[in-house]
Structures are given as C-alpha cells and as structure tokens.
Amino acid sequence: MDYPRDAPHVAGPLAAAPSPGTRFWRLRSLTRLDLTAVSIARREVVWMWTVVSIAAVALVAIGWPLTASGYGTHPAAAMAFTLVHCAAPILAVRWPWAGLGASVPAALALMVVTADATPVWPWPWPVTVLLAHCLTVFVLALRHPWYWAASLWSAGAMLTVLAPAAIVDDAGEAAVANGVVLVSLSGGIALVGVLVRLWILSMIRMEQAERLSAAEAGRRRELEERNRIARELHDVVAHSMSVITVQASTARYRQPGLDEAAQQEFEEIAASSRRALGEMRGLLGILRGQDTAPTAPLPGLPDVAGLIDSTRASGVEITYAGTDAVVPDAVGLTGFRVVQEALSNALRHAPGSSIAVTVAITDDGHDLRVRVTNSAPARSDEPTPGAQLGLAGIRERAAAFGGKVAAGPTPDGGFQLTATLPVVVLDDDPLLT
Fold it and tell me: Based on the structure, what is the number of domains in the chain?
C-alpha cells in the first residue's frame, strides 16, 4: 500500500543548510532518503492497485449476473450500475472524491433497479453491492484522512434509512436487518482501516527517524574527519605559510644589503604566501562547516592574468592568451584552478621550461577551453615532490560540469594539459556574476 497522504516528510537537521560547505552533503543525504521513500511508496501502491482491482473484477463477475438474473434487472442496467459501483474502490485508491462520487449514486441506482425482488433477495443492499461498498470504505480509510471514510459511511447509513422509505411502501424487517448489517459492517471496516492507517503512519515515522539518525551519524563522522583534516592543515601548512610570509616580508630589514631585484623577489614571495593563506583560511572554514566561513569572492578567469604575473616573478617565461567572455562563477573558478595546477606542475617537474597558457571559447560557443603547454625542461634539477593529486582533483572538478580533461606529453618532450568545460557564454549577464 502507498504511504498515507499526510505521511510526514523528512525534516529536522537535514532540512537546514547552515553553510555553503555543508549544503551539498545535507542535500545529498536528504535526496537519498526521499528517493528511498518514493521507491517504497511506488512499489506498495502498485500492490494496492493490483489487490483492489482483482477484488473489484471479482465483484463485477459475481454481481452483474446476480443482479440481472436474481433480481430480474435488465442486463444492460445491471452491467452499467455494477461496473460504476465496483470501480469506486479502484478510483478511491488515488482520488477519494471520485471513489465517493461513484459509490453513492451507483448504490442508489442499484437499490432502485433491485427493489422489485424484495423480499426474496437481500435488499436494499444486495450482497455484492454491500461488499463493494465496504471495500470502498476500507480503501478510503486506509489511503486518505478519516473524514473521507466517515463521509461514505454516513452516506451509506442515510441510504439505508431513506431509500427504502422512498422506493417501496413497506420495506419490512428484512430490509431493516440488511441495513443494520451494512451500517455495522462498514463502520467496523472503517475503524479497522483508520487504525491500520495510524499504525502505518507510526511505522513510517519510526523508519524515517532511523534513516535520519543513520544519516546524521554518518554526517557526524564525516564532520569529525573534516575537522581533523582542518586541524592538521592549520597546525602544519598554515603555520609554515605564516613563517614564509613573515620571513619574506622582513627580509629587507633583516638583510640591509639586498639589492632592489632581491627585495622585489621577496615581496612577490610574501604576496603569494599571503594569498595562499587567505585561500587556506577559506578552505578551513568550509572543512569545519562554519557559518562564518570567509565570504571573499573566489578567483575566476579575470584573475588568471594576475596568477601568471605572480608566477613570472619566479623567472619562468610564460605567454598568455585570454578571453573576455563572461562565464558562470563555478566554471571560471575551475578554469583558474586548471591554470594554477598546470603552472605548479610545470615549475616542479620542468624547471627552466617555457609555458604557453591559452584560455578561449570554442568556435561553437558551447565550451571554455583551457590549455597549458610547457616545453621540455631546460635543466635536470631534482623535481619537487608532489602529492600526485592535482590532476585527479582537476578531473573531478571538470567532471562535475560534464567537462573533459586531457593530459599527456608532447612530441618535443614537454607536457600539455587541456580542459574543456561546457559553458553558456553571455556578453554581460549580471545573473552569472
């Protein structure tokens, strides 16, 4: 059976997203719970449709010939009214108003066409009509709020009292007994349906609470691990970067004999380390899931030129061809990170090489293409060790947008990194900035 209409939705801590760093993870957990609930609901409603449909078909197969032959009703009228009345429980599975609207008029019509058989056959509620009525009451009580089943039960009770008085002169004790059976049986079935519904609601709440608890436990473990990583970054990397910043900034005072070029070199080192520290603080805030994480704008395509200028200060030869196209912030950030990672790899693994950076929109206007190519290394210096995670991270960023990354050696012994990111290019759309 399907979940009742007023079944509780997933709510609570997962429904809120206090920080950008945790919004995706909570949304993913919430979506996973919702999809599970929807899958279960769809499977169970199919079973309910099947069971109710089989019962309704059986009632039609029995009720139609019984109404036509036993009660002496015209076969066409018996078929039409029986079909409508037995279709009521099927309609009630999805539309309570349709089930109620089909059941009451059809029951009244069957009372009218079967009145001539009184008192030989049960009347005003023939057995098949009584069973179909009770089935509709049960479906309404199980699938919808209680007042739908109460409405149909009340309508059946009114028909039991008023129809015999309006259709025949003297209904007799048999009609009274038949009406008592209908009212008591349908009332009991309605009560059972309401109780089963309440039990289902309690089971749903308990199941959702268990799933929510499991999701929160997983999220708590994830946050603990992220906090541990944040502490390590703060205690090790951030401290080392702070030392570099201080040493580079005070070099001109501690070493008065430095020439202007050396002083400028130290200033570039200090500026780069301060910028790295700023990004590190933002990363730490996201890892810790803080609401007060730094809100400074993230770098994008316009910042690539500044990145290249700061990298040129290390003495490497870099040519750059950029684009003025306006792209979504997330795509611009990914393009910036691609250039940043490629430049870093070239400095570490290809000392003395020349680098060419190209950022452009493809001819069809659908993609942003970022290409960084470095020549063969000019010196055989020992490369600076890395974590081997940069290219993997770039591929993950690009895959999030449906993009592609190609990386490999060039024929002249160099290396080339090309990232293609789907993008909608606008001239000056403020909605994208």
Answer: 2
* Cα 111 from chain centroid (whole Å): 51
Query: Terminal CA-to-CA distance of the chain, rounded, Å?
Result: 48
Final residue of a domain: which of 268, 296, 324? Answer: 296
Angle at CA of residue 107, ends 105 and 111, nearest 5°: 115
Task: Enter the tokens of residue 165.
Answer: 């008085």
Q: Are residues 340 and 291 in the same domain?
A: no
Helix (H) or strand (E) holding 219: helix 172-232
Residues in a beta bridge with 354: 317
User: 220 φ, ψ to 5°?
Assistant: -65, -45
- CA pair distance 249, 45, nearest whole angstrom: 70
Distance CA 16, CA 86 (A): 46
**415-422 and 367-374 beta bridge pairing:** antiparallel
Full domain range(s) for residue 410? 297-432
pLDDT one-digit tens code per residue, 325-365 = 888 888 888 899 899 888 888 887 888 889 999 999 988 88
The pair of structure tokens assigned to 127 is: 């057995």
For residues 279 and 8, the answer to whether their CB atoms sit within 8 Å is no
Q: What is the CA radius of gyration of the chain?
A: 38
> Comparing C-alpha atoms, which of 372, 362, 295 is closest to residue 337?
372
For 94-118, the pLDDT digits (tens) are 999 999 999 999 999 999 998 886 6
